Amino acid sequence: xxxxxxxxxxxxxxxxxxxxxxxxxxxxxxxxxxxxxxxxxxxxxxxxxxxxxxxxxxxxxxxxxxxxxxxxxxxxxxx
Length: 79
Known about the structure:
Helix content is about 40%, strand content about 20%. The protein is an alpha+beta fold. Helix 1 packs across helix 2 (about 45-60). The mean pLDDT is about 90.
């Protein structure tokens, strides 16, 4: 997600931090949509992608740190 801010605009309401387990489905959806934007609709539909991604993210947590950008408890970005 691209945010263009005016020079005098504050972003105090946006937090960047490690993802919490309950946010992994939102991260999966953002990841799926990112791939869709870059390459077109993936072969795997969103509803079929989310559960395996969440399971993988939980298992891979020791080696893969997922970061999120959150505004008002809504995940708006991921890395």
